[in-house]
Amino acid sequence: MSIIKYDGIARDPTCYAIWDDFDDNRLCRDALSRTLAAVGGEGSMKCSPPEAQVWRPEWKIVNGSATISGGTLNTPAAQRNTISTSLPFVPEGWEWRSKADSVGSAVSGRAVDVRIIYQDDSNNYYQYWITDTTYLGYRLLKIAGGTTSSTVIDGGNWAWDTNWHTHRVTRTRAGLWELFYDGTSKGTATDTWLPSPREFRWDMETNPVPLHFDNLKIW
Question: Are 15 and 47 in contact (CB under 8 A)?
Fold first, then answer.
């Protein structure tokens, strides 16, 4: 599987390895019509290089009862929810939107855990982590051999609200990482360690409120 590679960390690619807007409300998907139109149709990919292609992600529920409905991926409250798709290579960019149903002191303990490069259940992965406890804010964490070995990037405090927000993580081939929140850079760091890539995972902790996700792009 070949995909377009970009060393400029803030650039948008011209096509994606995964692009899912969840509009067909299905776990096992057909290719999105507008994605295919963007690259010239399934039989005529117009990406550069030509072998670059758009994946049609097949989602698997690992824990909980996440649903795809109303054009979004939804994780219910009061249970752990894990949903994954195969991703056996190291991307250079991830982007998605998310929102929470409610805010306030009554919902302390919320956490969003996106395992952007996931290897195995022995806990070798990179994790984009948003929480209002423990790390208090948004972070890029490295988990190697089951141990949270370091905070790669500390993105600052996170203010929970009920609006949609856009999250982006980028990585160059040289291991330069950058976090973005609603288009604003929240920090950079260099870390060349990599797990052996296997999956991309939404892995939500037991949140007291439902969470929603949309417009996932990976390149």
Answer: yes
